[in-house]
Amino acid sequence: MPVNLPEINPELLSPIKGIRLGWAESNIKQENRKDLLVIEIAEGSSVSGVFTQNRFCAAPVTLCKKHLAAVQSQQISGIKALVVNTGNANAGTGEQGMSDALSTCESLAEIMAIPVESILPFSTGVILEHLPMDKLLAGLPHAVANLKIDHWADAASAIMTTDIAPKAYSSTIAIAEQSVNITGISKGAGMIHPNMATMLGYLATDANISQPLLDEMTKEIADLSFNCISVDGDTSTNDSFIIVATGQSTAPVINNRNDQGFKEVFTALVDAAQYLAKAIVRDGEGATKFITVSITGALTVEEAKTIGFSIGKSPLVKTAMFASDPNLGRVLAAIGYASRECASLEDLDTNQLELYFGDVLVAEKGGRAASYQEDMGQAVMNEAEIDITVQLHRGEAKATIWTCDFSYDYVKINAEYRT
Fold first, then answer.
1. How far from each other are the two terminal CA atoms of the chain, in whole angstroms?
2. Taking the complete model, does pTM exceed 0.85, yes or no?
3. Exposed, middle or buried: residue 254 (CB in 10 Å: 0-12, 13-18, 19+)?
4. CA distances from 105 to 43, 109, 143, 145 (A)
5. Strand partners, 126
6. In this model, does residue 20 exceed pLDDT 80?
7. What ranges in 258-391 are assigned the alpha helix state H?
8. Comparing C-alpha atoms, which of 399, 272, 293 is closest to residue 14?
9. Which of 138, 245, 322, 390 is most buried by a 10 A CB count?
């Protein structure tokens, strides 16, 4: 089961004015499960997205970028709908893949009477297989007929692949005594490592945020959340993170960073994205431990993140965590070879750094801390949630990443993924 991930309570997921969600069971990969989602977006909304940097990106990612570019160049007035299928990634599918992604948009555009370019398509699942278009297209009318404002919990289930549990988050803040609502969903469990955000994530708010500002915010929010997680070090072909601001709250309009409410809305969106990102790690394939790696005292954020991910994606560290083994050497080794991915770390003085498991100092001055006893580290490792902190003592920059352990089940799940 996911590590300390609360079960979704649909009643606590706030509807967002200007958003309706509908799902269908299309039998794309499995029968009798939600696997197709349509999200309707009201006219006048701002929509922004960031996507995988994997060069083998999926056809729907390419089409999403093209349609968002059409909005930015004002060829169309805005994005009106999102469509998501699970069970098939439509990646590594060549020209037919692009044709299938476009056909999906064309079919939905006809049903909803909106421009083709105003639709963003998303797919997740098995790579190198063509979409079963007959099943997908047959499900679209059912999903549209099912559109409702309170279908967030169902939507979270409809985008799952190997996830054990659906992931959703909701909050409400006040700006100038007016309510602003935020609700979002994400999916992901394996093939999780940032390069932009290794999953699918959809975050909506009724705040009124200008399109240029939302574009800036979306990249920054991804960097503070989905770009800070790793399950297995593999970056997917289909990663997509979308933020929608419908502007239907009565709170003041936010056009720039100095406007009233910007800091509050930005912070609330970061909190939502971080919750959804950490939920993915908590539901990492076969995960039994949720691990927070904090790096402080770095020269740059890049340095801090590089060391954090060097620790967080190390198979030896992750297997030690699964075994509840306080194997200090594996963590120190991961810190030491981080310089191969960040040149500025080549002069890292390992005699200056301090390593903590929880609040226990375990290593300093280039070796085991004089005060450290094995049972102290063992007590930390026995917990389901583990904090690892590294103080580099070379600057003021810091970063935090979230990861999980590697269990027997990770191998089993991925060995049987296509069966």
1. 21
2. yes
3. buried
4. 18, 6, 14, 17
5. 88
6. yes
7. 262-282, 301-312, 315-322, 328-336, 374-381
8. 272
9. 245
